[in-house]
Amino acid sequence: MGLLQLNQQNLSSIASRLAYPKYDRKAVKAGIVHIGVGGFHRSHQAYYIHQLLEDSQNSNWGICGIGLREEDRTIAKVLKEQDCLYTLITQHADGKDICEIIGSIVDYIFAKETPLQAIDRLAHPDTKIVSLTITEGGYNFNPNTGDFDFDNPDIQHDLRYPNEPKTVFGFLTTALKKRKEKGIPAFTILSCDNIQHNGDVARKMLLSFVKQQDQTLFKWIKHEVSFPNSMVDRITPVTPKSSVALLKNKHQLIDNWPIVCEPYIQWVIEDNFSNGKPPLEKLGVQFVPDVTPYEKMKIRLLNAGHSVLGIPGAVHGHATINACMEDEIFASFMRKFMDNEVTPHLGKIEGIDLADYKNSLEKRFANPNIKDGVSRICSESSAKLPKFLIPTIQKNLDTGGSIKYGIFVLAVWSYYSYKRVDINKNKIEIIDERKEELHQFAKQYEQDEFSFLRISDIFGNLLESERFLNYYSKMTETIYKKPDIHNLMTLIGQENYFVE
Ligand code: CS2
Fold this sequence. Notes:
Layout: E1 4-5, H1 11-14, E2 32-35, H2 39-43, H3 45-53, E3 63-67, H4 73-81, E4 86-91, E5 97-102, E6 105-110, H5 115-123, E7 129-132, H6 153-160, H7 168-182, E8 188-191, H8 198-213, H9 215-224, E9 230-233, H10 241-251, E10 253-254, E11 259-261, E12 266-270, E13 286-288, H11 292-316, H12 321-326, H13 328-342, H14 354-366, H15 374-378, H16 381-388, H17 390-399, H18 404-419, H19 435-442, H20 456-459, H21 466-481, H22 485-493
Parallel strand pairs: 1-10, 2-3, 2-7, 3-6, 4-11, 7-8, 12-13
Antiparallel strand pairs: 4-5, 9-12
D-mannonic acid is lined by residues 194, 233-235, 303, 306, 377, 384.
């Protein structure tokens, strides 16, 4: 058995080695165009669709991927070489790895190089849904005011040159305009990013952009395009090099970008589609009238829980989330954050037992076979924390609830942004579009202990709360003296830490 490159032609030979798509991929039409084909899309939505395509009745629901950014060049190249096939490796806690070849992405357009091809595909009558994973930062809004950021030079460019767009807003607008002109029904825009009310946000941002460009189109989009909110979930670490090696050594397969993920998968979608939807309910996807409670629960417990472990974990010197969970002090701190600061504001959620949900999160985070790097979790914290964590702190300030666990994360984040080293003086590689700005503000600490909090679009009005500042001041004072994360976590966990 020789080494085989993963591609369509080799699929039948690979079939004896691994699970593979049994459907006729050539007969699959791309009813979904997905913008932002990253690891998460490939472990989650593309996996659901892959299962759906096993039934030939669903062959109108394949996926065409689109990459808008320079960073998408590599995935464009890999997918082209592999006829858009890739291996999904599901990593179980007991060490078992399940490998399957996924075939639901049937085409990929690198729009950076061929924008017109991408526009035509978006405008094609076969395209019924345009789904997005463009990250929390991709929606181009000011996190504090929630308003669309017209100062972004790429947005200015797109307003001026609608036929050579660079941003998602430019592409969607031009494609929708074509559809309107040709009498083709509008597509649904389905956001799959970790933002509460992601569909409403996508709608607000797109409409703000279109309004500047074309009033008639604005009205048409407002009435014709639906933007369902959705809650998506599957932990998908950055693919380690060892996965490429595993496929090569164990299965004699060359796949230059496989995806690894946990076994857990969930998708809850608001049932609001303007141009039809795939029968995903057959695979356990929940179509519900209101996603709000589910998305709030997931973002404030799972995503915030990740940051509560990840940022202090980076400073303490833990490399992965499972290493944080093996550390009793971290695990108990995170649970107290979830129980004392988040849970009181979640209310009752239909069909969910919150204690079970939190227990399952602990198990998922602790999966030793996943090795989700804290660097991934800490990446783009400037876009994540205003969505994941700060709303919880704000709510507790309003209600007089506990705030100390959440504030600790912000205090450590200031130290992390300023010093950029862990407690052993090892350099921390920060991945954040705003890392220089974060550093500039944080490093004023000696002159102004609240300097970091003055990035107003991130921290909002936290500076106005004396109660908040008292905690923050006490915590940063301790950390900057000696960043002993364990000690401070233990102190904060005690009932009598800082009597107000
Ligand atoms: C993570 C998410 O990026 C993060 O900080 O919390 O990517 C998380 O793993 C996914 O949302 C899980 O569904």
